[in-house]
Design goal:
The protein has about 160 residues and is an alpha/beta fold. The chain has five helices and seven strands; from the N terminus they run E-H-E-H-E-H-E-E-E-H-E-H. Helix 1 links the parallel strand 1 and strand 2.
Length: about 160
């Protein structure tokens, strides 16, 4: 399973998702123009000392990701507005979970790359969830469904 962040904008969110990926052994792919430097102190602080445990890749654009790392993987696009409700979607161990920029979500040209879309059900009084929260919910749902958590050297506690 892969987590793909398309044009992430906020360093602490990416740092938190990097920590999530370290905790689950999930590959992290940063795609397109980043809204920060990978040397950003907030990015590093959010990821703490887990960065060496993150299998991280940086791609100039989605085409580069798809040609190299994404070949043969199903793209599962996330959207706060459309898509199948998370609890009804059937994940695969070979999925790439694609998340868009915090302020605007995935653009139509990226959404059009796959018919597979999921959304996290939330009350209408909330526009959307924080990117790192959404990534955690979607990733753990997918890992549980695919029974991929059993292979982790599990430590209890949050």
């Amino acid at each position: 399973m892969d987590v793909v962040l398309f044009e992430p904008e906020i360093p602490p969110n990416t740092g938190n998702i990097a920590r999530l990926c370290a905790a689950t052994g999930t590959r992290l792919h940063l795609v397109g123009t980043l809204g920060f430097s990978l040397d950003d102190k907030y990015l590093k602080r959010a990821g703490l000392d887990y960065w060496p445990h993150v299998e991280k890749y940086v791609w100039p654009d989605m085409d580069a990701y798809l040609c190299e790392a994404g070949r043969g993987r199903r793209l599962v696009m996330t959207s706060s507005k459309r898509g199948m409700s998370l609890q009804d979607f059937v994940f695969s161990a070979q999925d790439s979970l694609v998340f868009g920029p915090e302020t605007r979500g995935l653009p139509e040209q990226i959404l059009s790359l796959s018919e597979h879309r999921v959304r996290i059900p939330i009350r209408s009084v909330v526009r959307s969830l924080n990117l790192s929260t959404a990534a955690g919910i979607v990733l753990y749902t997918a890992l549980i469904q695919c029974q991929l958590l059993d292979d982790l050297d599990v430590k209890s506690g949050a």
